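Hi team, as promised in this morning's meeting, here are the two structures we talked about. I've kept the exact order from the run log so nobody has to guess. The first one is mostly here for context; it's the second one we should focus on when we meet again. Sequence first, then the predicted structure tokens.
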Amino acid sequence: MRIHRVYITWGLVIALVPLLACGRSDSGGSWAGTIEPLPNGAVRVTNPAEALWGSQDSWQLTEELVLGETDGEGADVFASISGLEVDQAGNIYVLDRQANDLRIFDGEGTHIRSVGRAGQGPGEYSAANGLTWISGDTLLVVDQRGNRYSILSRNGEYVRSVRRALSFFGWVFNGGVDSDMVYEVFSVGREDDRRPVLLGTHLRGDDVESGILSASTQREAEAAPRFVADTLLLPRPDGPLYESFSIQTERGGMVMGVPFSGAPKYYLDGQGGVWWGHGGTPRLYHTMFQGDTLREVILSTEPVAVTAEEIADWESAPAIERFKTMGGKLDLSRIPKAKPYFDGIVLDPRGYIWLTVPGAPRQAIFTVLDPEGRYLGQLQVSGVARETFLRPVLRNGRLYFVGRDELDVQRIYVYRVSRAPKQHKPQAHDNR
């Protein structure tokens, strides 16, 4: 499976890439899986159902901070979080789509400053939906309806902007930064043969030099690779791009996702490659931008079952009633019996792979693999409904994610990641 880079000349460059160095496991246990070379030079890692972690070396999550108040006028009252990042000093950066500002807190949750506001001027945003690091001291704010990427210093000061001339919008940013490029996931082709791609913008350019033209119609969207600074054809996923129910009438139409369905997920590693897979299939791949797949990881974990109560709760939503009123039909047999194996991929600074897993209501599950792809185990947080559309952040030995409590209030949750304390055998004492 390959990622192809398509240049303006439509030429394809395909190159073999050496195998990445293997990382060590964070466990002294015995692993029952296999690692085997494939004919194409890749490596296949087949995991057993048993976790490599034992009781003596498993990792633990310990709550350190919950940032976010129910009401009031403080900076820690969030309306609609659309971006989360953390720097090496532990400062927390929160992008709020509704307020169109960036709020910076220290590691204890104390507000440092807020920057930005709604508008079209320098340092202003319009439905900003993404936040990511370009380097250790430079932030990128994805201001999609403002048609630009705003570049900020680590303390939030506006530096410059680069034109974002892509016509599609998303609830949150889906992409990443690699070298001097920012990429966003898109899909091209006809409805029955859609293909995921990465569309890239040069961050070293300015509003004129970005080299991207808008794709305002479907025909132009399909031809977009001619005009973007860089286009990468992503491998086809093992399942459908999007499962939906739809209805078309003379007055319009409505499309809704099939609940609990898996979808393709991509994570740019920042080193010229991407980890990817389809949530409905227990497999991951690591593929370089200009070459073949380096690693295939097969999971043996069991997904969480979908309950009748969850389906009933979904059917009770106002959107479902609107869909039915329009004449839409719901084929409940299309709803999976189990939730996806994962709904997100992220790497920590040491190369460990964290898969976010849909759990029971108000439960956050994380499947952890070592850098080789060996299954270490799962970590769980109860009492919190994690916002699945926002990636967690792993930095400074901590896990940061956005979730909602029982009051449905959006907050930032911070957990320290540590090993379980060693169990020491009691020593015998001579009492003679």
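And here is the second protein, the one for discussion:
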Amino acid sequence: MRRIVSGIIYALSAAIGVLAFIYPFFVDVPLQVHGQAHSQDAPLVTAALVGLSVVALLVELQGRAISAKTVALLGVLVSITSVLRFIETAIPIPGGFSPIFAPIILAGYVFGGRFGFLMGAFTLLASALITGGVGPWLPYQMFTAGWVGMTAGWLPHIKLPASRNAERAKRLQESLTLFALCVLGFVWGLLYGVIMNIYFWPFAVGSASQMWAPGLSLWETLSHYAVFYMVTSLAWDMARAIGNVVLILLLGTATVRALSRFRRRFHFKVRPADA
């Protein structure tokens, strides 16, 4: 029963996130500038996301789906990754590159989608408090970063058939895993920007060929958004995508090994429900 309740909570969180992004396309909302978009509903969305995440964590603990030591690890990883975002604000970094996404992807892959969602959401919350990045955009960043970690948990854990050369098979397995993580990191480097733009795009003003307006068909909306994204965000997000790949190539294998040892030592099991 706790497992079902936990699944419902995560599904509800995802539904709230999707609705928060797309509702301006279906209701008559007053025109707002970028910095004021969602200024009225953002506190409610943030409270709902944080509340549901905490409840989900408590349910997981009560059901012993995760251990207290794993929750402590979640806190440590969130703290470390949040500090990385502080470094990002202190040192100029090209484009939209951020060092926070690689740890979220790697932790989500090792511990599963639910752990990854919590790490992504709480990392953006904690880092915003550290760097002063709190604003109406925050819950949308939290949802999107949570989805980054969740989808990392959906990646299959590659298991090669037993062979005589165990060491060679292990290296090949790690190489295939690293390749899959790099692909995911690259895709999310772009997709994060694609999703986050939707947070303010319905309120933006500019060229009619790039902006949304009530009455546009679905095809017109998608084509306008594609032009808007190509012109304003693609180069910026490409830096994030390439940066994710570089960090995962440099740190991915060692990090996955370390986190996997922790998971085995404390008997953390990634259940099929996380996939």
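Starting points for discussion:
Confidence is low (pLDDT under 50) at residues 270-275.
The chain has one domain: 2-274.
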